[in-house]
Amino acid sequence: MTDRALRVTRRPRIRNEGLTSTYGVRPLRALVALVCATVLGACFGGGRVDMAAPSESTSQRATRTSLTARLETIDRELAGGAARGKSGTALSTEAAAIRIRLKDGDFHPGDRFLVTISQGGATRADTASIRDSLMVTLVGLPDVSLQGTLRSELNEKLTDHVARFLKNATVRTVVFTRISIIGAVGQPGFFVVPPDRPMSELIMIAGGAAANAKLNDMQVYRGRALLLNKKQTRLAFNEGRTLEQLDIKSGDEFRVPVLKKITLASVIQLLFIVSSLMFAVVNFLQFYYRQQQT
Questions:
Q1: DSSP 22-46
Q2: Which residue, of 112, 155, 255, 263, has the fewest CB within 10 Å?
Q3: Radius of gyration, alpha carbons of the chain
């Protein structure tokens, strides 16, 4: 056979080193493995769980002194130009939130707290609700405004108010957290609970988990923003963390999803999607190889 015949019958070699081999088999296997790894990663992918503790500026029990000190630190960093880009934007947002908090306080209409007043051997306790005007009525005493009052200042604020009318009285307060629990629970709705309540007890407060509840996938939202993802919520359950430790605030929402049963139809649908994807990839590679050979 002549050299010309050899050149005609020899299988052409793809000239694309690093991407293909002589016959394009290894790149196809590599791409198939990559697609499979991507699908499996999306279904079963894990990751490191990061449970960051609330900062001093966002802590519900932050004092006015600590908030003011943090604000001064931020202002110095921004004025010195050390923080730029996303870091500078984050610091500016934090500074604005601190200023609002120092001005308006931590309380909003609808918030509730337990107040206990002890005088001599007598003790009176009542649950106080904050009205739209941020005024609150204590046990048999005139109203008092909580405008500009931080949570860390509530006890001192009410102690000074009660002292104007009662001598040698001791005041204790417990601020409740108003949350909503929706989804696969016995009694979904709004609940008012103490902040020292472990998250693991919230399901029982809502009537227990439903038969089709998927507790491992429970998440916590603040408005439309995700506050705690599945892994963080699961870790909080296992560690017995309280609402205050997790910086859960009034208005936050706990969502308990429904357990989706794996049916034959869903398995067939998944296999159809994967096979369609693989078929499209193979067709694309064949087209690519033909283009390289021409």
A1: SSSHHHHHHHHHHHHHHHHHHHH--
A2: 263
A3: 31
